[in-house]
Design goal:
Shape: globular
Bound molecules: iron/sulfur cluster
Strand order of the largest sheet: 9-10-8-7-6-5-4-1-11
Oligomer: single chain
CATH class of the largest domain: Alpha Beta
Number of helices: 16
Strand content: 15-25%
CATH architecture of the largest domain: Alpha-Beta Barrel
Number of strands: 16
Helix content: 40-55%
Length: 382
């Protein structure tokens, strides 16, 4: 068996838990870094002994979290060495580390780069002190700016900056200022996410009891459209709903999720996907870090596993592919599922007639209007 896959490595610890965050992350002052890294490598050894990863080549590595930049650069280096020893890594592999301002300085970032990290993703979220405070972030605007400068000084030439919009109390002028400042820093890649209220988070509960008022829909839409226009004018191509890049700097790791490429997720709560056998399967690990480490010790950290039904796999192919501006290739759909796209998804005809989906260069993509209604379109395809 040969092929390429993407490797995700989950680091579940954070300095503090942000009140809007529903990621599998835990506030911690200390963490069992060596034991956790040992477990990651033990899980890797187990997973890459089996299909579809046995003999396959790693195309991208992404250290996500949580806050991976809390780990010592030596630990990241040990993990990258372990990955290279366990499987083939493509010479041009995209190797990304998520980092939070307030956890990194120049020397630490230089050490991450020496460890083998090639791309840095900085969780800026905002340059506005009040909004960072609302979001419960541990950093202020000056630390965000210092983090970006330190990343450049450390030699990172492939930099992503994340921003969040539609924060309670945010004004259009504040968002304009955030986007303008991001553009002045000229990252190779930018992500703009609207704040969401996920069940189980403090923000969700506060909104439910009226203690927190979400931004109104008009402002949220205006902010999204402003980011799209300003980033386009600055030479960024929007290639996915929330993602913008200079040509050639698209996040290949994320593209693999949208394109149904096999991915292996290591670590607490990490998810994995294999497109074979049949319509594919996916699994996830024990979520709590201690339970994950103990389960690896016992031999298998898998907590959930699912064999995908035809309908689930066909729906995922469609709505994940439609996240990308280039859309989906109907021929690729037919080759994968043995039936034409519109036979499996008859709702496509109505969405096209309503002007929400459009044919572009032989592919089917969200229209301009469809982009603004993406979530409801995806719901129709499920
Ligand atoms: S730093 Fe990121 S992963 Fe950690 S709690 Fe905040 S949003 Fe969640």
């Amino acid at each position: 068996m040969s092929g390429r896959f993407s490797l995700y490595v989950h680091i579940p610890y954070c300095a503090a838990k942000c009140p809007y965050c529903d990621f599998n992350s835990y506030a911690a002052a200390r963490w069992p870094e060596n034991a956790y890294a040992d477990a990651l490598l033990a899980e890797l050894a187990r997973r890459v002994a089996e299909p579809p990863f046995a003999g396959a080549t790693v195309a991208t590595v992404f250290f996500g979290g949580g806050t991976p930049s809390l780990f010592h650069p030596r630990t990241i280096e040990r993990l990258l060495d372990g990955i290279a020893a366990a499987c083939a890594v493509a010479g041009d592999a995209e190797i990304t580390l998520e980092a939070n301002p307030g956890t990194v300085d120049h020397s630490r970032l230089a050490d991450f780069r020496r460890a083998g990290i090639r791309r840095l993703s900085l969780g800026i979220q905002s340059f506005q002190p009040a909004l960072l405070a609302t979001l419960g972030r541990i950093h202020g605007p000056d630390e965000a700016r210092a983090g970006i400068a330190a990343a450049r000084a450390a030699g990172f030439a492939d930099l992503n900056l994340d921003l969040i919009f539609a924060v309670p109390g945010e004004t259009r002028a504040q968002w304009e200022a955030d986007v303008a400042e991001l553009i002045r820093f000229a990252p190779e890649h930018a992500s703009a996410y609207n704040l969401t209220y996920e069940p189980g988070t403090p923000f969700h509960a506060q909104r439910a009891r009226g203690a927190l008022t979400p931004l109104d829909d008009d402002d949220e839409l205006w902010m999204y459209q402003h980011a799209r226009a300003a980033l386009a004018a600055a030479g960024y191509e929007q290639y996915e709903i929330s993602s913008f890049a200079r040509p050639g700097h698209e996040a290949r790791h994320n593209q693999s999720y949208w394109r149904g490429v096999d991915y292996l997720g290591l670590g607490a709560g990490a998810h994995s996907y294999a497109h074979l056998p049949a319509w594919g399967r996916r699994w996830s690990n024990e979520r709590a870090p201690e339970r994950y480490i103990a389960a690896v010790d016992r031999g298998d950290p898998t907590a959930t596993a699912e064999t995908l039904a035809f309908a689930t796999a066909a729906a995922e192919f469609a709505f994940l592919g439609l996240r990308e501006m280039r859309g989906i290739d109907p021929a690729a759909f037919a080759a994968r599922f043995g039936r034409p796209l519109e036979e499996v998804h008859p709702e496509v005809a109505a969405l096209r007639a309503a002007g929400l989906l459009a044919d572009r260069g032989g592919r089917l993509a969200l229209s301009e209007r469809g982009l603004l209604l993406a979530d409801s379109i995806f719901a129709e395809l499920v």
